[in-house]
Amino acid sequence: MEKQCLSSYTLQQLTALMKELGQPTFRAKQIFHWLHQKLVVDFSAMTDQPKALLAKLEERFYLANPTIQRKQQSKDGTVKYLFRLADGNCIETVLMRYHYGNTVCVSTQVGCRMGCRFCASTQAGRVRNLEAGEIASEIYAVQKDTGERVSHIVLMGIGEPLDNFENVMDFLEIISCADGVNIGMRNISLSTCGVVPQIDRLAEKKLQLTLSVSLHAPNNTMRSSMMPVNDAYSVEELIDACRRYQKTTGRRISFEYSMVRGVNDTAETARQLANLIRGMGAHVNLIPINPVDGSPYSASDAENVKRFQSLLTQMGVNATVRRRLGSDISAACGQLRREEATKEDKA
Length: 347
Ligand code: SAH
What we know:
Helix content: 25-40%
Structural class: alpha/beta
Number of helices: 12
Order of helices and strands: EHHHEEEEEEEHEHEHEHHHEHEHEH
Number of strands: 14
Shape: globular
Radius of gyration: 21 Å
Bound molecules: S-adenosyl-L-homocysteine
C-alpha cells in the first residue's frame, strides 16, 4: 500500500483517523500541534505519543518534508526556493519581504495544464497535484530556513489552485487553523486563471480570502491568444462569475494584468478594460510581463504601464503598478524548476 501524507489531514480528519485507530480523540489535536505548530518532520519527534501508535502511523503515512534543492537571494530581500519533494519532483516557493510582513508565494501543483502563453510553469504540462500538507510544508520550510514568521500567503506559484480544488481547500483549513500556524484568511490571496465553475464552487465556501483573477485582456480575441482557458470560459462568463463571487462572499476581487508590449497595453485596450469592470469596485494590479524563454512576448516599458494606469484611474478604475520583486533572480514562477529540469535532461 502506498503511504499517505499525514501532514495533509485537517484537524477534523485527524480526529476521525484517531477514532478509526481506537485512540482517544485528544491525540488528534496533539499530533496536529506537532505537525503544524512545532513543524516537526519526523514521527519520532512526537514525544508525547505512544510508541505503538507512532509505529502504526509510520506504516501507513509519511510526513511532508521538502528539502532545499536550490536557493536564490535577491538584492531586495526576496528569496526563491527550489524544493525537492519526497517523490523527487521539484516545485518553487518565493519569500517576499514587505513592510507589513513576510509573504510566501506557494505552488499548488507540479507543473500546470492551463497553457498560458507567457508562463514558464505550464510549458511542460502538469505532472501532479500537490497534497494539502505539501503546500503547507512550503511555508513551514521557509519559516524554518529563515527563522522568521510568515504572516501572508499568496497562491500564485506554479499551478492553478482551482484545478486542485479539494487539496487547496484542505490546505486553507490547515494553515488558518487556530491549532496550527494560524494565518488568517484575510492574509491569504488565491489567484486563478479563470476556471468559472470552480470560482462558483469557491464562492459557496464564503471564505474571507482575496480572490485574484488573472484577466490580462478585456476581449475574447486578445485573451484567447494569450490564455487557452479563455476558449472554455469567455471574458463575459468570467466577469459574470466574478460578480457572483463578490455578491455571495461580500469580498472585492482583484484583477491581475500582466502587460505585454503591443498586445494588451494600448489606450484602446485600457478603455475596453475600464468599460468591462467599472463599477465592480475591483482593483487592478498592473505588472510588466516577465519575459520567459520560448514565449513570444516582451514587456511593456515603464512609461506605457504608467500611462495605462492613469487612463484606468481617469475612467474610474482603481489600478496600481506592482513592484517587481526578485527580477534579478528569475522569480517569475516556473523559471527555476524549468532550469533544473533542463539540467537533469542534459545530465
Ligand atoms: N494559475 C494561477 C496562479 C499562478 S500564476 C493564475 O493563473 O492566476 C500567478 C500570476 O502570474 C498570474 O496572474 C499569471 O497570469 C502571472 N504570470 C505568469 N507568468 C507570468 C510572466 N511571465 N510575467 C508576468 N506574469 C506572469
